[in-house]
Design brief:
The chain is an alpha/beta fold. It has a single domain, classed as Aldolase class I (TIM Barrel, Alpha-Beta Barrel). Helices cover 46% and strands 15% of the residues. The chain is built from eleven helices and nine strands. Strands 3-2-1-9 form a four-stranded parallel sheet. Helix 5 links the parallel strand 4 and strand 5. Helix 2 packs across helix 11 and helix 4 runs parallel beside helix 5. This is 2-dehydro-3-deoxyphosphogluconate aldolase/4-hydroxy-2-oxoglutarate aldolase. It is an enzyme of class 4 (lyase). Homotrimer. Its EC number is 4.1.2.14, 4.1.3.16.
Length: 209
């Protein structure tokens, strides 16, 4: 049986969902999955994010390829709320040892955001299996290659700055996964949720080409 961590790596692309409401987040998530992106990170900048996580977990209960997690986890309280809603992983823009412990105690993974070698090593020592490079657009794909030189065992996932033009370069430089955010929902207002599916397919194709 594939572990959640291995499934996340296999799926590779994380849809970072910042909905205007829980219903909006659910629709963007579902249409991302239809487009082939099966790691869903519902951020807690979304109103009623826990409701969205719980509903998505129920909807995909019989689909082991779809993994539902929570992002923008800033406090221990939010971590506990997300876990209670059914989140299978937690993501933060920063590293917090207390959130790491909550995740560890719940037997799920925590992917903290780091931007320096010191932060990355601290997160690894704390038990993080994948470290989010944030902000990815500032650091750039070559940062992964530079870090992998002295620390070849680290698993790095950029979030922010991943585009159709550079997603393949991120992978070639050693990213074990990537987070794609605002690009997925960029045309919902003008073209509806079907645009999310189309854009998701474009990201999957760009990765494979």
């Amino acid at each position: 049986m594939t572990s959640v961590l291995e499934q996340l790596k296999q799926n590779y692309i994380f849809a970072v969902i910042r909905g205007k409401s829980s219903d909006d987040a659910i629709e963007i998530s579902k249409h991302s999955v239809l487009g082939g992106i099966k790691n869903i990170e519902v951020t807690y900048t979304t109103p009623e994010a826990s409701k969205a996580i719980a509903e998505l977990k129920a909807f995909y209960a019989k689909n082991s390829e779809v993994v539902i997690g929570a992002g923008t986890i800033m406090t221990v309280e939010l971590a506990k709320e997300a876990i209670a809603a059914g989140a299978e992983f937690l993501v933060s823009p920063h590293y917090d040892a207390h959130i790491q412990k909550v995740a560890h105690d719940a037997h799920i993974d925590y992917f903290p955001g780091c931007a320096t070698t010191t932060e990355i090593v601290q997160a690894m020592n704390g038990g993080a299996k994948i470290i989010k490079l944030f902000p990815g657009g500032v650091l750039g794909p070559s940062f992964i290659k530079d870090i992998n030189g002295p620390i070849p065992s680290v698993n790095l996932m950029p979030s922010g700055g991943v585009s159709l033009a550079n997603i393949k370069e991120w992978k070639e430089k050693g990213a074990v996964a990537v987070g794609v955010g605002s690009a997925l929902g960029a045309k919902v207002a003008t073209e509806g949720y079907e645009s999310v599916t189309r854009i998701a397919k474009e990201f999957v194709s760009a990765l494979e080409d």
